[in-house]
Amino acid sequence: MKDVSIIGVGIHKFGRFDDEPYTKLGLDATQMALRDAKIEWKDIQIAFVGCMYLPATSGVRTLTQLGKTGIPISDVESACATGGTSLGMAAMAVGSGRYDFALALGMEKMPRGFMDPTQLYEDWQIKTGLSQNPMYWALTARRHMAEYGTTIEQLAKVAYKNHKNSVHNPNAMYQKEFSMEEILTSRLVNDPITLLMICAPNEGAAAAVLCPTEIARRYTSQPIRLAACVQTVAQYAADFRVPAKSISARVSPPPVTKFTADKAYAEASLGPKDIDVVEVQDTDAFCEIAAYENLGFCETGEGGRLIDEGVTEIGGRIPVNTSGGLISKGEPIGASHMGQIYHIVKQLRGEAGALQVAKAKVGLAHVLGAGGNCGVTILTR
Amino acid sequence: MKDVSIIGVGIHKFGRFDDEPYTKLGLDATQMALRDAKIEWKDIQIAFVGCMYLPATSGVRTLTQLGKTGIPISDVESACATGGTSLGMAAMAVGSGRYDFALALGMEKMPRGFMDPTQLYEDWQIKTGLSQNPMYWALTARRHMAEYGTTIEQLAKVAYKNHKNSVHNPNAMYQKEFSMEEILTSRLVNDPITLLMICAPNEGAAAAVLCPTEIARRYTSQPIRLAACVQTVAQYAADFRVPAKSISARVSPPPVTKFTADKAYAEASLGPKDIDVVEVQDTDAFCEIAAYENLGFCETGEGGRLIDEGVTEIGGRIPVNTSGGLISKGEPIGASHMGQIYHIVKQLRGEAGALQVAKAKVGLAHVLGAGGNCGVTILTR
Description:
The structure is a homodimer.
Chain A: E1 4-15, H1 22-37, E2 46-50, H2 58-63, E3 73-77, H3 82-95, E4 102-109, H4 123-127, H5 133-148, H6 152-166, H7 180-185, E5 188-190, E6 193-194, E7 203-212, H8 213-216, E8 224-233, H9 256-268, E9 277-279, H10 285-294, H11 303-308, H12 325-329, H13 333-349, E10 362-368, E11 373-380
Parallel strand pairs in A: 2-3, 2-4, 9-10
Antiparallel strand pairs in A: 1-7, 1-8, 4-7, 5-6, 8-11, 10-11
């Protein structure tokens, strides 16, 4: 495989845009990425469009508005990890040598209100009441609290950090700081998770232009190298688990985030200690704590300590979700990972403004969702 | 890119299977392909699952039933050309050198009754009444008849040939021969297309296992080489057009089937004269006549003559839709192209039974659908 780099990124703010069709969201992100890459739409040779709740051929109907250039345009989907797939396929298209310029676009308009669990969950999950994410993850949070002493205040601190970061991210949905008390006393969704600790399904888009690293400097002075882009599916039935102290790690496969991250670290020849800035799947505040552990930033059970010590704040040793995370940005599923990529690219270029992590050279983005779909991307400058 | 071959194929009969979930259809086709390739599920390193009407993460929920091996499994979609994308992505995964064994699976369960046109068509198409395929294609058929003297009997002959072939294809939905009179007098769908001239949306699955050509003979004595696998999107607004005598071919881009086929022929270093057996998108009988012309088997306007002269029958110079085509098999969208691939592989191996085309060495499969999505695959033995 050829080495692949990102030469342009674009985004449409995440939020709710009743008057804008999904095509508008996708086009805005794509045109911004093309301008950033200093190439034109006619230069793109293949496109992968991640979306989950949009109608068939959404990618074609969006991108052909820029010109009917005849290139293959495919919709792809892997639940919350969809963006890993669109980016991974675009990277493979360029890496294979078959295409020089590929577009990875993620875009989404999600339905409001109750989501039909039969669309995403297995029969046993529905029958046991574990058919909506908040229920599932609340249980895993409670288990972690019981096993390792993680506290509800630590969960709230994750939400506090992310909401605080989002104030400086114009592409986040909320952009509002909340006090610890506001977070802790906001409406209970599923004990112990409150409304301000959980992400909202919403709308948005983000895109990246990829080309072989060997020609990337013709287009930008700051190409961002795709050091690893790994997608996997969990090796166990439930999407999320808490490794219990009482159960030997040897009796079952690793959590899918650890499994995926280990592959990505190997591919990039890097380890957790080399990572300068991180975006993770904080579907709720506990998910971020679990990600700290499974991405190798601390030992199992020590995620709560990391947030207490400020390690994952901007200025800390491993700033996590400097964009504000899904908790403040919302999660437009198809666009989620590409939105993380947009933000990490900005960080590695030194263009993250008030959110900038000093001297960031290596970034990691992580997504995880229904079906156990997981993606970990490592970017370097 | 490495050279890529198919070492195993599998299929679940196309039809309507109220008692079988889509996962069963997909698993049956996959297990048959794995047995055919003489490898096990744990050997597969990446999978692309084409589907259009199934819920999110259908591929994961189907294939992980064979074992949670942790490999990436992505749903992909390009309307009626979906199978081209799943096969093309699997080919790129192997061709890039990143994976040795890839699975391309197509599976579908389509809704019955009226399909919501807003899901697939542009506003102007709905407003002009061109919002369902039969309406669209009936107009193109009528235009071809006016321009080139194509007759309704020639359309009926296409349906006659395909239904007749299907009697020997156990995987076709109808498997029933109809007389010319039955076809011509069956219920009119959209003038001039009658019910027995048009395909039915239905259910089914088909799969292929791919590996580098350099190791393919370890698994099968008859690997089938993927000489070309090209996907494109039409360069004009409407999906289907009839090149009018009165308009110079130079004023507009070629029909998307010609555009795609020319790329595939170039990639395979082969031409229309080299093709021994063909499967095309016969959504209705006229579509097959248009395909004859756009795939280069005759000049524009001469498609009707080809069917009159028996050129595309088994025993003719270029047998087309020896499987019975979509007209008799039905069109489970996600599975459609992979079903064609299954049948072409059988032909090239000499395993097509009563439908066998003598000495078939080169096969071509073609799909075309909403959004102008098109795929042409060329296989050689």
